[in-house]
Amino acid sequence: MRLRETATLFVIRSLHKWLGLILGLQVLLWAGSGAFMALLDSSAVSGEAAILPVAQIPAPAAPLPLASVAERVGAPILRLQLKPLFDTYVYEATTPDAVVLLDAVNGRRIVIDAAKARALAVARYSGDAPVRSVRRIAQPTPETRDAPLPVWRVEFADKDRSTLLVSEANGEVVGVRTDTWRLWDIAWMLHIMDYGQRQTFNHPLVVTAAAAATWLALTGLILLIRSFRR
Amino acid sequence: MSRTRGSSPVSGPGSRPPLRWPALARRLHKWLALVVGIQAVLWMLGGLYMAAVHIDIIHGDRLVKAVPPRPLPVAGLVEPAHLAHLAPGLKSARLEVQAGRPVYVVDAEAGRALFDARSGRKLSPLGEAEARARAKALFAEDGEIVSATLLTKAPLEIQGRATPIWRVEFEGAWRPTFYISPQTGELVSRRHDLWRAFDVVWMLHIMDYEGRTDVNNPLLRAFTWLAVGSAVTGGWLLFYSFRRRRRRRGAVA
Predict the structure, then answer these.
(1) Are residues A117 and A203 in the same domain?
(2) Is residue A201 a contact partner of residue B205, using CB atoms and an 8 Å limit?
(3) Segments in A47-196 forming alpha helices (H)
(4) Per-residue confidence at B75, pLDDT binned at 50, 70, 90?
């Protein structure tokens, strides 16, 4: 009886030791990145202070009739929105292949090019720093992973390098990135162990590591109880 | 730096033994673990759950029937120019197909509302029959509706959403539940027990037991640093525990 108990304890101790050896660094990274993310203020991470709400402008009294919209879009419309886009009302028509933007009054096609994206970003930016750069992002990057691509990346010359992401499809500001977010994102990457897009926490590596670390924690807890009972 | 065996520092009887490095590491590790031990198990188990069950399943993507969007029949609809009369102070409008018919979802001074795009008739707020019909049409599984309730206060599982809101629960695995806006007819949210379990796990993970959203709370900040300490002292301890074992083996041989 005594012997069996000692043997069990030996197994638990060995498990704890070896799991600690194998997983120690990752456990430290989990704790460290978790501590770091808990320290970074979540509203600073989200960058919500860097953008203004959409400015209210009066809706046009006579927006383009539907027949004209359909003719100008020239493709089956799945969804049609009438909404303000900075200083004008637009129609946003979703077709099977693309999104088409029209000026809601004169029906002219609106294309979100670099200049337009810049103007839209400046309109929503809450600071007063000038634009540092405007870049079109077509390939996935960690910064733009949640945004539909292609997207315009408009960076401002402020201290936090605030960056507004403007959708090329419909001109909406679809995200804000700041240096606080970029720091947070490194911790997030280490925490979820997705070193590429830093996006998914549902991959075999992290599942395996978490399963093993569960044993590390459980054996530790058993040893702890034992050591205080002694 | 002392090079002791670690487990039992030898000293004369009566005198308190000086704390050697391995003993210090062990004691620190033990006391830190005493504080964070249970939380560490919860972190690991919770992390395992969050990693193992795919987020798309958690989000309940498979509960909603995938309906390929059909082209809008534009002819004969209420003109957008007329919307300002229907909804004074119009801010935005969306023309789409809901439950097989074209509708306008508008946002105006008085809030959001739903209009039949053919007749211009106001459809909102949706009544119980209408909410049930929409929920049933959107539900991807076979289960019948168990209950439909109009909530005036958003429950925790959809905190922050606009109210009133229809809560429609179905029979089926994991108690699938749809939340439908009576103002816009939209499926605002879907929940099931795997999501609810995830939410509890998340609460335990971030140690915010009330709102389940504050990742910067002082308790979490304190515990995460204690966990760092626990990991560091554990790593420190590894040096001694492996060294000692090798020696012991050598002694036996």
Answers:
(1) no
(2) no
(3) 66-73, 114-124, 179-192
(4) confident
Regarding whether A100 and A172 lie in a shared domain, the answer is yes
pLDDT in tens, A96-117: 999 999 999 999 999 999 999 9
Question: Residue B242's pLDDT is what?
Answer: 79
- Strand ranges of the sheet holding A79-85, from the earlier edge strand across to the other edge: A99-103, A88-94, A79-85, B92-98, B101-108, B111-116
Q: Is the ipTM of this complex over 0.85?
A: yes
Residues of chain A contacting B214 with CB distance shorter than 8 Å = 42
Q: How many domains does chain A have?
A: 2
Say if A36 falls within a structural domain: no
Q: Classify residue A38: in a domain, yes or no.
A: no
Closest CA to A123 of A86, A174, A159, A76: A86
**Burial classification of residue A170, based on how many CB atoms lie within 10 Å of its CB (0-12 exposed, 13-18 middle, 19 or more buried):** buried
Domain that holds residue A19: 2-31+194-229
B79: nearest CB among A65, A94, A206: A65
- Please indicate, yes or no, whether residues A61 and A166 belong to a single structural domain of this protein: yes
Task: Give domain status of residue A186, yes or no.
Answer: no
Could you tell me if B198 lies within 8 Å of chain A, comparing CB atoms? Answer: no
Which residues of chain A does B90 touch, with a Cβ-Cβ cutoff of 8 Å? 59
Q: What is the pLDDT confidence band of residue A6, given thresholds at 50, 70 and 90?
A: confident
Same domain for A14 and A54, yes or no, is: no
Q: Tell which B residues from 46 to 65 touch A, by Cβ distance under 8 Å.
A: 47-48, 50-55
What is the b/e burial string over B9-18, where b = at least 16 CB atoms within 10 angstroms of the residue's CB?
eeeeeeeeee
Residues 80-119 of B with CB under 8 A from A: 80-81, 83-84, 90-96
Indicate whether A41 belongs to any domain.
no
Name the closest residue on chain B to residue A32, using Cα atoms: B228
pLDDT of res. B18: 67
The dihedral built from the CA positions of residue A36, A42, A46 and A48, taken in this order, carries a sign that is negative
Helix, strand, or coil (residue B151): strand
Please indicate, yes or no, whether residues A163 and A200 belong to a single structural domain of this protein: no
Asked if A211 and A144 sit in the same domain, the reply is no
The token pair that represents B9 in the structure block: 């520092």
- Which residues does A46 contact at the CB level (< 8 Å), separation at least 6? A176, A181
